[in-house]
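Dear colleagues,

As part of the handover before I leave the project, I'm documenting each prediction I ran so the next person doesn't have to rerun anything. This entry is a single chain, and its sequence is reproduced below.
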Amino acid sequence: MPDGDPRYIFDSVHGLISFEGDIGELLFALINTTEVQRLRRIHQLGMSPCVFPGANHSRFAHSIGMLHVTSRFIERFKRVAPPVTEDEERVLLVAALLHDVGHGPYSHVFEKAAKENHEKRTTQVVLSSETEVNHVLVGVDPALPVKVASLFGAAPPRDWALPLHLRQTISSQLDADRFDYLLRDSHYTGVDYGTFDSHWLLEHLYVDEYRGVYVSQKARDALETYVFARYHMYHAVYYHKATRAGEVMLRLLLETYTKALEAAETDEAKEAVVPGAPFEVLNAFSSEMSLDQYLQLDDYVMNVFFRRCASCDNPVLNELGAGLLNRRLWKCRDLTHLQPNRLAGLISAVRLWLRDEGEPDTLFQDDTPGDTPYKPYDPPGRPDEGEAMEKLIWLQKPDGELGELSGQLGTIDELTERYLLVRYYFPERLRDKLCDFMDDWLSKN
């Protein structure tokens, strides 16, 4: 390759992405580390391919996409904000590329089941002297790992901090992460709900000294479309009942396996819980996971584990493993409409009924969404201080003043109200009898 020629990656969402100069060489070196390459083996959407066959894109592809969108944010800031230094640009682009490097297999559902936090693991990957990522960063600047890790929750170096608007590019309600995953997930699932005019929004971003990024009045409609896109993607894709069924099953499988390992008193007994289970899974769930053990896990390893569970003697692990492997997904009952006390009574009655039927009461699992498309900030005190202010979306009013988004778009509050869901999942083989029991109980109580 002739000196000075950029490197390129062809992306199905953003087109041609170029890597130029010293920063481009650094990013390409990071892309080729084992920790970043591992992301090719982790699906971006977890169980969604069970519902949307084309949704097989990876965390790796999303990381490349977020890197590109972050570069577009930076180019905009260079035109409308105080100058972005080369050091700030490097830190920001590296953080964008590495922001998901700490994700476990099947992403967020694994996090909950294994009591993990991907941002803490990302920080470990960046700071650990045992990782290739750390070696690459230190080779450029010994302070670079700490600077990058500060965007994932670690303490920043003394006398150094990124400006607010640059931090918001990595993590806020209007950031490069959301820009990419909405467009990418919409593209690969084949739905149009996640599309919005990212180019128009970016061209109307400005920077306020105290609030950080804000959107001009000209892009009000584009901003509203963006928020609605996230709402509709959550309803249509991320919280699709079949997708969530797979995630509920995986959560229960990992919880059941962990408890069985804890009850086993010898190494032989642990191995016998799921004979032939990949050593990466057995070692990881037998004790507190080291970083190396954690990074050995990916979707491919877990798929082998599902296969081993499908032939083991534990009836719950057997049923769940076969279900995840062969898409025998659990069914759900939407109980959102029930008052809390009535819902609690029904749940207790169902668990008793399951035990009377000789079934584990764990076969009735709840699933309540914990995310919203936009969380307005409504503190009891002053609404102009605190970390939460960094997460707000600011929109310029017709008079030129800045206002928090939900105060200008009444539809935002309506979205939050419509977002509440309470679902319970159970095996398909129990559906008829269980639903008859619930209908009978509800008619009498």
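The radius of gyration is 24 Å. Strands lie at 7-11, 15-19, 205-208, 212-215, 331-334, 365-367, 394-396, 402-404, 423-426.

All the best with the project,
I.
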